Amino acid sequence: MGEGERGILRHTAHVATLTLVSRILGYVRDRLLASLLGTSTWADAFYIAFRIPNTFRRFVAEGAMTAALVPVMTRSMKEDPPESAWLFARRFLYVFALLLLLLTAAGTLAAPGIARLMAWRYAQEAPAVFALTERLTAHLFPYLLFVSLAAVAMGILNAREIFAPSALAPALLNVAIITAALLWGHRSGNPTGVLAWAVLAGGALQFLIQVPFLLREGMSFAPAFSLTDPRVRRVFQLMVPAAMGAGVGQITLLVGTALAGLAGEGAVAALYYANRVTELAFGILAVSLATVIFPRLSSLVAMGDRKELEGTLSRALEAIFYFLLPATAGILALSSPIVRVLFETGRFSAHSVSLTAGPLTAYAAGMVLWGAAAVLVRVCHAHQDMLSPFRAGLFSLAVFVATALSLLRHFGASGIAAASSTAALANLLALAVALVRRHRVRLLWRRLAQALARDAALSAAIGLVSFWLWGALPHSGRLAAAGALAAAVGAGALAYFGGSWVLGFPEARRVRDIFGRMKA
Predict the structure, then answer these.
(1) pLDDT tens digit string along 318-346?
(2) DSSP character at residue 412
(3) Cβ-contact 153, 211 below 8 angstroms
(4) In 211-266, which ranges are continuous DSSP H helix?
(5) What is the pTM of this model?
(6) I need a surface site. Which of 112, 470, 488, 517 has the fewest CB within 10 A?
(7) Per-residue burial over 132-151, b = 16 or more CB atoms within 10 Å of its CB, e = otherwise
(8) DSSP letters for 124-184
(9) How far apart are CA 269 and CA 51, in angstroms?
């Protein structure tokens, strides 16, 4: 295993660990919110309002901006003097901050129209709920400004292969919401207002925690504003097609949220909770790996090292299969117990468990597909190709809408989640075709097929074992259910990773090697 691969795995392990901390806090947050809001109309109003700036954040910042900034910043740090590279970083930060201020102001003013578009059923049938959604949308829109500045800081640090601060930053949003929910949530007749203030505080903290690391690396925050810097202009040139690509994905989420309104009360919240569970597994590995691998891919493209690029891509996809396939099998086998143990409390009733378990199963089916697609998108971005992900996104959006509309009537929220997984397959296939045809990147199909087959076979067996173990253990009470689920998941994980080591899976050896080096 080469030094570059060791570095990627080491950074991925660090980022995954910090992401796990954030996700655990995210679960605590979601359990508190489930207790406070359940799958009520309050929950729908809050999640619709929160989804809107969150969608813009992924559309404007974490999607388009970081995809454009990291390769340009990586090249600048390799080719330009340090003072020039940091000047570029400052110029981009201030120009982007001004644009964010204008967008935030426009979004806040347009909140009534945006809320009506997203919660039109409530506007017609439940005016009080719609009024709450409208107020929360205006209140939460400034979150976009704070979290987008945090994304700029993340992009700059990632270009210097510093990943820990940005991996830990989302945890502060969770801490802010947890604090507000514990201290003031139950004291308020309607806790959504308190939660909205906590979201804004958490967004600001995500940026502020990264400032000391930027200063330590050598960045100054002295004002520097320039639209003539060719590097700044290049980032914005790349952002336009990247924004279209990111926008398609976010439009898919918004369309799903709007369609969920047709599925009845609680469907929006059920999709949110189900998605949060899949994001726990997806975010720990797929997002961490895609984040860490991006600067490396950009560097390999800049150097023209195609052979190492293809090897790095194949190893990344093998890692996606190795970690996400057993997670998928576990969720498919234990969807209802997972939802019951994680969320059943307070307003989150047995009916809420039933409402959420179906979408969780459907989302889990697409988890590996979205993980693999996240890696392929980064390869496109490393080539400064933003159009291919956009075209793939348009194709997947069309597949999603057609599938969701056909499934919604009979399967409700579960049909929307299933449509998301179907769209994931369409997206992955379109990206693979683009890489092969446009960039002549050779996908090692035989090697990938072998990895997929062995990981899937072992995962399926472990999933069946976990399902059997849950049924065999007592799980009638809350503590008994938690113990049975922990035993089923723990035994399955040990059997999978132990079995993969005994059977000689290459990924198992790589994982053992990198963790052995980390301990040393």
Answers:
(1) 989 998 999 999 999 999 999 998 888 77
(2) T
(3) yes
(4) 211-217, 230-260
(5) 0.76
(6) 517
(7) bbbbbbbbbbbbbbbbbbbb
(8) HH-HHHHHHHHHHHHHHTTHHHHHHHHHHHHHHHHHTT--HHHHHHHHHHHHHHHHHHHHH
(9) 11
